[in-house]
Amino acid sequence: MPLTSADITRIAKLARLELAPAEHQQMLDKINAFFGIVEQINGVHTEGVVPMAHPVDAMQGSEAMALRLRPDLASEPNDREANQRSAPAVERGLFLVPKVIE
User: Fold this and answer.
1) Residue 91: strand, helix, or coil
2) Other CB atoms within 10 A of residue 16 CB
3) Is the pLDDT of residue 85 over 70?
4) pLDDT over 70, % of the chain
């Protein structure tokens, strides 16, 4: 169901947007084009397709589509003292910052 010019005027008013006449027509065309894409997606046959919580879920069972991640290894040593040398205030290994909320 395509939107009308009155719908765009109402939406712009609700969003507190001021649209020029050229912008008004452009917005109408873009939103109606988006709804056309949604209609195409709704037309896709999805019966029997199991919903996924995440796209990676589909890759877990397949050896061919195994997710290749690098090993989670520390690449640099933890040198806290060197990193905190330039800090104005440090206490027990933590950076101290001024209080900003009263």
Assistant:
1) strand
2) 6
3) yes
4) 87
The packing angle between helices 5-14 and 21-42, to 10°, is 100
Query: What torsion, rounded to 10 degrees, do the Cα atoms 25, 26, 27, 31 define?
Result: 110
Task: Answer whether residue 40 shows pLDDT above 90.
Answer: yes
Token pair, residue 86, equals 């330039």
The model's pTM is: 0.47
Do 31 and 50 touch, CB atoms closer than 8 A? Answer: no
**What DSSP assignment string belongs to 3-39?**
--HHHHHHHHHHTT----HHHHHHHHHHHHHHHHHHH
| C-alpha separations of 16 from 5, 13, 70 in Å | 16, 5, 48
Q: Which domains does the chain have, with CATH numbers?
A: 5-42 (1.10.20)
